[in-house]
Amino acid sequence: MDRASFGSKIGAILAAAGSAVGLGNIWRFPYEAGNHGGAAFILIYLACVFIMGMPIMIAEFTVGRRAKASTGRAFGLLANNSKWNFIGMLGVLAGLLILGYYSVVAGWTLEYIIASVTNGFADKTPEDFVAAFQTFSQDPIRPVIWLLAFLFFTHFIVVKGVKDGIEKSAKIMMPVLFILIVVLAICSMTLPNASKGLEFLLKPDFSKVNADVFLGAMGQAFFSLSLGMGCLSTYASYFGSDTRLGKTALSVGVIDTFVAILAGLIIFPAAFSVGIQPDAGPSLIFITLPNVFQQAFGGIPFLAMIFSLLFYVLLALAALTSTISLHEVVTAYLNERFKIGRNRAAMLVTGFCIVTGILSSLSLGAWDAKFFSLSFFDLLDFVTAKLMLPLGGLLVCLFVGWYLKRSVSYEELTNYGLQKATYFPIYMFILRYFAPIAITLIFVNELGWLS
Ligand code: TRP
Known about the structure:
- By secondary structure, the chain is mainly α.
- The protein contains 18 helices and no strands.
- Helix 1 packs across helix 12, helix 3 crosses helix 16 and helix 16 runs antiparallel to helix 18.
- The longest helix has 37 residues.
- Tryptophan (TRP) binds next to helix 1, helix 2, helix 10 and helix 14.
């Protein structure tokens, strides 16, 4: 049986960029930047993306395309020893767990789309927005319905397959997303006092930089680029033999960064324009932003409605291309490993995520069980983003840097000598030494051993 593949190089880039661009860029990046002082954080973030993120992405691409297998099997095949599959299995498990709670937040975007249309934001005070968000996110039913809807859309596209589902949807959704985000950023920058927001984003204040800022930026780079669990290595197994791994990684990195910065250009000028501080944390886009839209376009409710509608549509699209990639990692693994049809495999994944998703959603309100003093939602977030991803990234560096034959990496990066890869020695140096040390530091910091 022929292995599925993307139909074109641009399709491959858009699918991978679709995975990378998500809630991480539009929801997490602005509040992380806001909490860590703006421009200085962003500069460090950029360094992390391009110095560490790019090489690790290329390493994941190498594993996937060389093995031509989903991440759960790729390492064993390359090592010729199924014991190495534990690296990929860790990724499959991480994907499954991330999908559970990520879909909850993704589902919220649907509620906010509806609220924008029904003009549920009009005539509200800032306190009303806080109360509305709390009532909604703690409700036992509504978020669950949106979560199920979101998983259903994801399931539907994954079942359609690599070319007709994932690639095609990315080719439609990604351009729409670019247009939306550019339009919104321009609108936001023309608001009165927007320049204060721009200054916050562009003028670095290095006095705020400490170890926490540095390590926060590295963690954000990981999450935003979809690294550390074989998402992009599964996609790379669908790349054609003429796809250039280095160039593709660079394109994905540039697109992902561009979207994150533009999200900042939407949110900060708008927030400063109405005198709201940028460090509200995770609730920034669900509590602060509706308030900002409301006040900024207060005189013209119709404009406020259009602006918020477009924003939440943007967020939902970005989240959808990411949930698709998380779903695909697990579906492809079950499909290949147990030789069950794609439909059945996808059904199992969706079924599992319905359970973990519902539990995550309920754990924010009705279900008050605590695990190590974390709700189930926060537990999944902590275990995946803070433990499993850095560990997965570290293992990929070590596997490709030290275990895999150098010639194999060289062949993949140059497409068997057809292209140049002058960056190869630097790439190898980063994989072998720089990245493992840097990741170990994030890891140690996140476990609180440094503080
Ligand atoms: N990168 C996506 C975002 O920014 C989320 C995501 C998709 C992800 N696949 C992943 C994060 C794999 C870590 C690992 O929202």
